[in-house]
Amino acid sequence: MVFENLSNKFQEVFKKLKGKGKLTEEDVNLALREVRIALLEADVNFQVVKDFIAKVKEKAVGHEVLESLTPGQQVIKIVHEELINLMGKTNAKLNDAGSPPTIIMLVGLQGAGKTTTAAKLAHFLKKQGKKPLLVAADIYRPAAIKQLQVLGDAIDVPVFTMGEQSPVDIAKASINFAKSNLKNYVIIDTAGRLHINEELMDELKKIKEEVSPHEILLVVDAMTGQDAVNVAKSFNEELGLTGVILTKLDGDTKGGAALSVKAVTGCPIKFAGMGEKIENLEPFYPDRMASRILGM
Amino acid sequence: LKKSTVDEESFEKIEEILIEGDVGVKPSLELVEKLRKTAREQRITDSEQLKQVLKEEILKILETGDNKLKNVARTPLVILVVGVNGVGKTTTIGKLAYYFKQQGKQVLLAAGDTFRAAAIEQLEIWGNRVGCQVIKQKEGSDPAAVAFDAVKAAIARKIDVLIIDTAGRLHTKTNLMEELRKVKRVVERELPGAPDEVLLVLDATTGQNAFSQVEYFNKALDLTGLVLTKLDGTAKGGVIIGIKSSYQIPIKFIGVGEKMDDLRPFDPQEFVEALFAS
Ligand SMILES: Nc1nc2c(ncn2[C@@H]2O[C@H](COP(=O)(O)OP(=O)(O)OP(=O)(O)O)[C@@H](O)[C@H]2O)c(=O)[nH]1
Ligand SMILES: Nc1nc2c(ncn2[C@@H]2O[C@H](COP(=O)(O)OP(=O)(O)OP(=O)(O)O)[C@@H](O)[C@H]2O)c(=O)[nH]1
Ligand SMILES: [K+]
Ligand SMILES: [Mg+2]
Ligand SMILES: [Mg+2]
Predict the structure, then answer these.
(1) In the prediction, which pLDDT does A16 show?
(2) CA 20 to 30 Å from B147, out of B153, B180, B216, B271?
(3) How many CB atoms lie within 10 A of CB B2?
(4) Inter-chain contact B233–A194, Cβ cutoff 8 Å?
(5) Residue B23, SS3?
(6) pLDDT tens-digit profile of B140-192?
(7) Pocket residues for ligand 2 (CB within 6 Å)?
(8) Structure pTM?
(9) What order of strands is seen across the sheet that includes strand B107-110?
(10) Beta strands in chain B (DSSP E)
């Protein structure tokens, strides 16, 4: 059963309360303390947890819970529902340009998985009969262009490169190339950068102004801790994100960053990276993520 | 100067700082509990002093053991660098190579990541930058074979320091962890006592999963040290406090950027100050 760990903890909490009759607000607090710990241990941001707990509490102190015969189960149900609500109920699809090409830009911190994800997305689109173009706009990381070329070759998707010229020029030229070569999706790989690096954030803004992407996706490592909110907030403020891709979910991380990032940007998480291989990209399912964060 | 007095809120504020610094709930609660006790016993009334006491408590944890690289009599000194995907292994190797070159040492790099696209080229670019040779085979070859070649070459060429790169891998993937053990075994067989250092690279932006990373990598390889990268961002890397007190593995270096001189010895004092700086 999902929520088993939390259920067990809840049972302990509520066992102590047996025979006491109705639950008090105090009792609910006790239960929510366990939820708080579970969320923090899953790396959900401190402030996000605080707001979340407040919201759940508001619902949980309603009569249904306090008078319920299985109050523990009731609280768990509310927690689950609220988590899913927060992460965006259903799976969100990629935006589509009215007239092609659809332009997708991948941004994020160093090593998050942008280049790999760019190739995964291209592969995903190609399988649907689309004609993607990969764009090598990371001119900084050693062998970044080569990395994208190797990946592009492996899936037989062309990679647009202009050596180490300005990423803004590269992005701009790639759109013309896509149009004249009838590519209907352009996926721009950008260099990893810190959200506090003004110069490099400016570069992204210029690319955005030049090519008006239909998607600006923040690629986030699922193992990210508390800092996920700072990163997501900055990237969103600077660029206006349209979505998030969570990577490296194939490990044992609880992935609380998903909740943090969603909470501070409001952007849907569109895909999950489930491995290093090109086919390891899956649509993101909020309900599965809710269970995972709570350690079930 | 306004002195703020210690009350319940002071402890809550400290708990918040710790948790937001990725120290983790349990270690944070433990530290705060201990602090409450000390505050009672020593009748601490000033909240700045309270912080000072906590900083010293954390420093004690971080300062135990030797944070320096091992000094071995024989050459080459062999360093194996491991870690999960994208944490900064290859970049750290480039920086380490530069660090040793600065000391006038002969350095050799081994391109043991034969899996990731253009990983070999990435290491070669670092080799060129720093001015040292790279032992490689083609993509897809056996990393243990690369390590074997590299140890042989390092001995033959009278190299001072050999640093072996490995492919990023999640610690939960048993077969990939076994592959690393094989690399280590081959090195041991060719040069008894080596690898002298097995460094696990941790990304400072990582949260509580770092515990699991240390647990699994340590079990498989007996780590000798940690490198904490990407401390130039806003992440504090507080998770290493609990890791240090649970595993006693020293933190040997930190990474503070993408350039070759962006490697620093780990300075516990500086680290703790940064944890409490807003
Ligand atoms: N296990 C796992 N590894 C992944 C996943 N996505 C990417 N990686 C790995 O993470 C590492 C970093 O991926 P890259 O695609 O190079 O990351 P990046 O964001 O482009 O990095 P920079 O360009 O340096 O900022 C590589 O080893 C990838 O193979 C994933 O979903 N699971
Ligand atoms: N800001 C910052 N970036 C860093 C630091 N160390 C490494 N990086 C960047 O992080 C990204 C990943 O670094 P790599 O050295 O390729 O990481 P890796 O662990 O070898 O990655 P894989 O081999 O794919 O597992 C690159 O963009 C590096 O430039 C650091 O200390 N600070
Ligand atoms: K990372
Ligand atoms: Mg990249
Ligand atoms: Mg590498």
Answers:
(1) 63
(2) B216
(3) 3
(4) yes
(5) coil
(6) 999 999 999 999 999 999 999 999 999 999 999 999 999 999 999 999 999 99
(7) A 110-111, 141, 192, 194; B 83, 85-91, 113, 116, 119, 167-168, 229-230, 232, 255-258, 262
(8) 0.96
(9) B133-135, B107-110, B161-164, B77-82, B197-203, B225-229, B251-255, B263-265
(10) 77-82, 107-110, 133-135, 161-164, 197-203, 225-229, 251-255, 263-265
Residue at B147: amino acid letter: A
CA of A289 to the centre of ligand 5 (A): 29
- The closest residue, in CA terms, to atom 6 on ligand 2 is B88
**B145-151 contacts at long range (C-beta below 8 A, 24 or more positions apart):** B145/B186, B146/B110, B146/B111, B146/B112, B146/B114, B147/B110, B147/B112, B147/B183, B147/B186, B147/B187, B148/B186, B148/B187, B148/B190, B149/B110, B150/B108, B150/B110, B150/B112, B151/B76, B151/B78, B151/B186, B151/B187, B151/B190, B151/B191, B151/B194
Residue A59: pLDDT above 90? no
Distance from CA of B145 to the nearest CA of A (A): 22
Name the residue facing B25 among A41, A140, A224 (closest C-beta): A41
Kindly report whether the peptide bond that precedes residue B76 is cis, defined as omega within 30 degrees of 0.
yes
ipTM over 0.95: yes
Secondary structure of residue B224 in the 3-state scheme = coil
A42 at B interface, C-beta within 8 A = yes
CA distances from B43 to A149, B1, B37, B50, B213 (A): 65, 21, 10, 10, 40
| d(C-alpha A197, C-alpha B82), whole Å | 28
Assign B26 to helix, strand or coil.
helix
What per-residue confidence (pLDDT) applies to A58?
A: 87
Dist CA A256 CA A291 (whole Å):
11
d(CA A38, CA A28): 15
- pLDDT band for A293, please (50, 70, 90 cuts): confident
Q: How far is CA B130 from the centre of its chain?
A: 21
Q: Choose the closest CB to A37 out of B25, B210, B233.
A: B25
